[in-house]
Amino acid sequence: MTSIAANLQAVRARITAACIAAGRATESVQLLAVSKTWPAALVREAAAAGQRAFGENYVQEAVAKAAELRDFALEWHFIGPLQSNKSRLVAENFSWVHSVERLKIAERLAAQRPADLPPLQVCLQVNISGEASKSGCAPEQCIDLAAAIGKLPGLRLRGLMAIPEPTADGARQRRQFALLRQTQEAINRGLGISLDTLSMGMSDDLEAAIMEGATIVRIGTAIFGKRETTT
Ligand SMILES: *Cc1c(COP(=O)(O)O)cnc(C)c1O
Which end of the chain has fewer CB atoms < 10 Å from its terminal CB, N or C? Predict the structure, then answer.
């Protein structure tokens, strides 16, 4: 077994254990393998070990890898900061975008999504730590943004995504993830809709995220190893 296959197995075991601890079905949590900065050859190893969904932060890098890996039916998720001038490549090449934080970007994605593809699956990125420097819309603004995005053709709003402040304190991790869940509940109540996706939890805090209702965990380091860059 390759080390990536072994790492994937270990991450899946962590997800299963966390689901059991949380009283949730294992299938209720999807593993998104975050392959940013890693070459296509390593993504291929993960794909050969059965992994289907991959997360990327850099548009051109992801498009090149997807082209090299056409022989697998992979699902690509864009999870990084999204600039207007990259939106067309994202609309044309990805199944999901987790990092929508402004209506302008959503409108561009909607206009640029090719008609022959299924709707682009979208999560709103929420700034749950309240730090001005962090990406994401403020929790109290999310409901208006969700209402506006929900009306756009070519997109399907699925839920919320957050990158919490890193902390080793498990209780603190859970409070941040709970805030994202509560924000989603408030949107669903307020708009009478049923967003079903909470994209939260990374290599160091997936257990806390699953306890608070994560449906997609985004895992890079625990599968592929430590990245050179700190993005
Ligand atoms: C890099 C990244 C991840 C993966 O983080 P790890 O700690 O390596 O698991 C998850 N989500 C986003 C948005 C990222 O940029």
Answer: N
202 alpha carbon – ligand 1 mean position (Å):
6
Please report, to the nearest 10 degrees, the dihedral formed by the alpha carbons of residues 35, 41, 42, 44 taken in order.
90
Cα–ligand 1 centroid distance for 227 (angstroms): 10
Q: How far is the CA of 162 from the centre of ligand 1 (A)?
A: 11
What pLDDT is stored for residue 229 in this prediction? 66
What does the domain layout of the chain look like in residue ranges?
Answer: 3-224
DSSP assignments along 13-58, one per residue: HHHHHHHHHHT--GGGSEEEEE-TTS-HHHHHHHHHTT--EEEES-
Ligand 1 site residues, Cβ closer than 6 angstroms: 34, 36, 57, 79-80, 163, 202-204, 218-222
* Tens digits of residue pLDDT in 7-38: 999 999 999 999 999 999 999 999 999 999 99
Has domain 3-224 been given CATH number 3.40.50.150?
no
